[in-house]
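WARN no homologs supplied; continuing
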Amino acid sequence: MGHFYDNSIIPQHLRRDFDVYERIEKLRLDLGTFESWINRDLKGANICTITFHESGLVYISGYGYGPGQMYDDPKRIGEGQEAAQFIADAMIGRLHWSLVCGGEGGDLNDVLYTVKGLGMVVSTDVAFDGAPAVMNGFSSRWQSVFGGGTGAFAVDGEDSSYSGVHARSAIGGFTGRFSIEPELIVAIPPELAKAIIQNRGWIFPLPPREAERIRVEYEKTAQSQ
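OK structure emitted
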């Protein structure tokens, strides 16, 4: 487990007994590379994609994806679920690099639990009932990595951890050229959040000057290994 996780307030009966990255490897989830993420700085940006709070809450911005409007057809719902899973994979990669890029010692194993998810599902059909089903593609994938009864590693609805389970809203009725846009809040140890903020700030991607500093430090570390 992560150093910060091991020293957290999580009670023993709810602690994960698996390495998150082993699950990621079994799922063949691509986290991307340091270079691909650190080159995306905040120059000219309207928003950041992740915000750290000193309390340990981590706010992950929404991301829209999918073939378009959803409607109550099993095949179309399945396409929406696949899009939602794709977004979950992308968010896991983004969260990974936001935690590790500064070298503070944290990673995905230091995620304590998942707090709240919101899934906005595109459908102008006023009779559409499938928003929760579409969002299930996101929630189940998240549980596959962090733990939960609908994840890929659950057996008969039970997992050894439930840190991927979250409070959630799934709402249909939006317009857009995609199918679903989820956003998420997770919790990490306050000590890790404070270390990140003190070292490089509370936002990811990084401001341009911070991104350059972190890039130089990363390259020096890589050369010395």
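The domain at 3-10+17-40+48-207 is CATH 3.30.1330.40 (60s Ribosomal Protein L30; Chain: A;).
OK
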